[in-house]
Amino acid sequence: MKKIVMLHGINHNMFGKRDPKQYGTTTLDEIDGKLQALGKELGVEVESYQTNCEGDMCDRIHKAYADNADAVLINAGAWTHYSYGIRDALAILTVPVVEIHMSNIHAREEFRHKSVFAEIVKGQICGFGVESYLLGLRAALSAM
């Protein structure tokens, strides 16, 4: 069975409580449940991971490489806009990487318009709320 790793970044453990105008009221557990259900329907295993520690995120990306994951989905949150460490870890991967954002980062504050991952990921999906995750999973599968 193909394995997709879903990486959730900083503050995502607060989904459902944090800024409902931007992120809605769906919790991280509910998002992961939707990904698991779609993964099962599509015949892939989805393993989710969340951390608020940048080094831990890099370690998990290294593990995805070592475990031969078939694709990686990442919503790194604010790290998207400045973490060259996470970018360098993602660049090690040789499988499709899809960047995901619930909100439309291009319609928000100026600092959110730039993704330091954009040059190395297969693509970016943003602005569709929880559906961004499900679209990202489908996109990763089609890119494999």
TrEMBL record:
Keywords: Amino-acid biosynthesis, Aromatic amino acid biosynthesis, Lyase
Subunit details: Homododecamer.
UniProt cross-references to PANTHER family, sorted A to Z: CATABOLIC 3-DEHYDROQUINASE
Protein name according to UniProt: 3-dehydroquinate dehydratase
GO BP: amino acid biosynthetic process; aromatic amino acid family biosynthetic process; chorismate biosynthetic process; quinate catabolic process
Molecular function GO terms recorded: 3-dehydroquinate dehydratase activity
Binding site for substrate: N75, H81, D88, M102, S103, R112
Pathway per the UniProt entry: Metabolic intermediate biosynthesis; chorismate biosynthesis; chorismate from D-erythrose 4-phosphate and phosphoenolpyruvate: step 3/7
Function statement: Catalyzes a trans-dehydration via an enolate intermediate.
Family that this chain belongs to: Belongs to the type-II 3-dehydroquinase family.
Organism from which the protein derives: Caballeronia choica
Active site, UniProt feature: Y23, H101
Catalytic activity: 3-dehydroquinate = 3-dehydroshikimate + H2O
CDD domains: DHQase_II (cd00466)
Residues annotated as site: Transition state stabilizer: R18
Keyword Ribosomal protein: no
UniProt EC number: 4.2.1.10
UniProt KW GTP-binding keyword: no
